[in-house]
Amino acid sequence: MKLSAVKDYLAGMGSQDDICMKYGIRSKSKLQKWINQYNSNEEFKTSGTRGAPIMTKGRKTTYEE
């Protein structure tokens, strides 16, 4: 999604507001950050968890541990 949004913007397919609405991006600053990353040839990183908590369940420990 990040790459598609950036490429659409750079291709002139809409303003930053238009692209944010199309892809459900919450803020223009996030899109601007992605554009800067793309222009500086940085790799886009994904969280991989899709919003799920990373630690789902812990275990009880004793005071000695």
TrEMBL record:
Pfam families from the UniProt entry: HTH_28
Region annotated Disordered, chain positions: 45-65
Superkingdom: Bacteria
Residues annotated as domain Insertion element IS150 protein InsJ-like helix-turn-helix: 1-40
SUPFAM superfamilies: TrpR-like
Protein name (database record): Helix-turn-helix domain-containing protein
Source lineage: Bacteria, Bacillati, Bacillota, Clostridia, Eubacteriales
